[in-house]
Amino acid sequence: MKNAFSIGLCLLTTSVFAQQINPTLNDTVKTLLPVIITGKIQSPERMPEVKENVLFSGKKNEILKLSNINGNFATNNAREVFSRVPGVNIWENEGSGIQINVGVRGLSPNRSWELNTRQNGYDISSDVFGYPEAYYNPPLEAVESIELIRGGASLQFGPQFGGMLNYVLKRETKKKFTFETQNSVGSYGLMSSYNAIGGTLKNFSYYIYNHSRSADGWRQNGEYTVRNTHAFLEYRFTPNTKISAEYTNMDYQMKQSGGLTDAQFEANPQQSLRNRNWFGTPWNVFSVQLDTKINDNLTSNTKLFGLKGERNSVGFTATPNVADAINPTTDNYANRRVDRDFYENFGVENRNVYKYKLGKTSHNLAFGARAYQATTTRKQSGNGTTGSDFDLSVNPDYTRNIKFKTENIAFFAENQFRVTEKFSATPGVRFEHITSSGAGLFAVNNGANVNFDAAPIVRNKALFGLGLEYKFASTNVYANISQAYRPILFSDLTPPAVTDVIDPNLKDASGYNADLGYRGNINNYINFDISLFYLQYNNRIGGVRQFTNNDPSQGTFLYRTNLGTTVNKGIESFFNFNITRFLKIDNKVGNVDFFASMSFIDSRYTDFETFTTTGTAPNAVITSSNLDGKRVENAPRYIHNLGLSWGKNNVSTTLQYRLTGKIFTDANNTTTPSANGVTGMLDKYNVFDFSSEYKFLENYNIKAGINNVFDEAYATRRSTGYPGPGILPGEGRTFYISIGAKL
């Protein structure tokens, strides 16, 4: 770790020395060289009232320009990237960054499944309604910006409670040809290489990149390899009409270290008791988009998009207090479990904005429609090999093989009425028609097939919302209330064991988000956004462990039902203060920024049902009682990020501190950890990260940083299944150094 500190100090010393020996040259360099200053007042930015056929007036939103942020982009360090967005909770399974797990406002971060996750405006998750987990996200070195719209996005982008998360990829539109490369090495065998070409030739634009990364992993049995390839081509028929096509392919293999009991974690969080567990998700997404300006008042965008992907896992899935050992009778390890999903999705989405006048005031109407179909083939509980490699073969066949299908048609409209030049009101509506179906083999019980054949579930759901915004000179007050909705997921209908019980009256979840906030810039040195939020989640679905006849000795089963209503409320605040600009010494000293992203979250069940069981599953008689006031699982009471950044000319550095409160990991609010590590409270944690960048010779850069500077031992989650039951440690101290160029 001393080497990493030395690297950062050398970079800073070199820059300061160069400025001191030739202050005149320094002024020239400041004028001519491209400048990246972290922490400058534009980060995060906010959306204008209308952008790309979407209305943002009255909605809480953030745009993160990654060129304005110092961070470890080589491994997609979400903790650094989202540090300026209040209320973002992050699950850190391992340090590969292959999957980014984020949640907002006390919602689960599990593969960002409470958010509508997109890339360049189109869906990239498994199935928006049936299985909304995002197994893919682009490498952050390829990302220009990240857009996050909170719950008010439910009307224009889909009914998700969390809102919409969109990764906008880099493009090159000014030069005929550019080449960009960024190559990184780091702790535990990290090697990463990002290479891209792009440009514009008359009416054509193109951008192609390949990103490859591998490492041994901070934990034992944590090695991985990942590759991302992307191609984009655009043709402009006229200045007002263009068509583009893009294709992304990702493939990776990742060894999963598995979970730990609390005792194992305390003894050595780097240890792993599993060396035969693997995970991989080959992923393909494509999109064709047509943008046109029909006339001065009407613009339109149409996207045709699709996905073909897989989710593949093989491993020994017992809890960490069960050893994965060779059986002396067979002289072999136990057979591993193989689970595979296959996804085939396609859809079309149209968005339009119509500008019109009523009297002397102009108004905006955003409207559109969406058609979507997704097919998931789920093969689970396969009897895998006794080996240790990434072998997905099974013998005999899978004991679960179900095909699910989701069909969706949606219509949406929002109208921004400018009541005055300063005040606008934006009412909106979205109508969802969703059909879900599934059929196939559910299990094999005592040699007999147990089939699954669910009658199609048809929903017709209307959602409504209203946004308000009042503008001052450089600030504005905003308010929004929008309904949200979450259908029953495939995993809710198919429990992991044949003895488990599903409530026959299982209902879809519904609710709403509300915001009231004040945001803007003051005198070009203060950037702020402070707001109150209220999120009500009705009929929240979950599982409660039950004892047969209330007697633990007779066995247990999981009862999956609507647990009740949760209310998440709190404060989200962001504040960036440019100290040197305020003191009017930024021309001499550079930009010194202090930022604070703080959130206080109170997430509780207000209608929490507990159950008493009589009889034996699956024909048990279950009666309920109410126990409200329990805290929502995986929802910390506070998430704070504090940072200090300095940038001048071609040097920039950022030191940030993240503090996250303790969490319960189950709905029963179990405090004492279980012997197998699956339940129990997780303590608060504090993590420091340092990142820096030095630009030289106009087109070249060196980046370096240390993550978890003080080697804090912490964990953000527990798991009951993949990536391995038990407590999942966050990474200890690691460093990286990177050299890149854009020519």
Give the topology, please.
Blueprint: H1 2-21, H2 23-32, E1 50-51, E2 54-55, E3 61-65, H3 78-81, E4 88-91, E5 101-104, E6 115-119, E7 122-123, E8 143-149, E9 163-169, E10 178-186, E11 190-201, E12 204-215, E13 224-238, E14 241-255, H4 262-267, E15 278-280, E16 283-293, E17 298-315, E18 337-358, E19 361-383, E20 400-418, E21 423-445, E22 448-471, E23 475-486, H5 490-493, E24 501-502, E25 509-522, E26 526-547, E27 556-578, H6 579-583, H7 586-589, E28 591-614, E29 621-626, E30 638-648, E31 651-660, E32 685-696, E33 700-707, E34 715-719, E35 726-729, E36 734-742
Parallel strand pairs: 6-9, 24-27
Antiparallel strand pairs: 1-2, 3-8, 4-5, 6-7, 8-9, 10-11, 10-36, 11-12, 12-13, 13-14, 14-15, 14-16, 15-17, 16-17, 17-18, 18-19, 19-20, 20-21, 21-22, 22-23, 23-25, 25-26, 26-27, 27-28, 28-29, 28-30, 30-31, 31-32, 32-33, 33-36, 34-35
Structure description:
This protein has 743 residues and is mainly beta. The chain has 7 helices and 36 strands. The strands form 5 sheets. It has a 25-stranded mixed beta sheet that branches. A 5-stranded mixed beta sheet has the order 3-8-9-6-7, with no helix packed on it. It is globular. It is a multi-pass membrane protein.
- Protein structure class: mainly beta
What is the distance, rounded to the nearest whole angstrom, between the alpha carbons of the first and last residues? 32 Å
- Approximate shape: globular
The description of the largest β-sheet is: 25 strands, mixed
| Approximate helicity band | under 10%
Q: In percent, how much strand structure appears in the residues?
A: over 45%
Count of strand segments: 36
Mean pLDDT: 89
Give start-end ranges of low-pLDDT stretches: 1-41
Quaternary state reads single chain
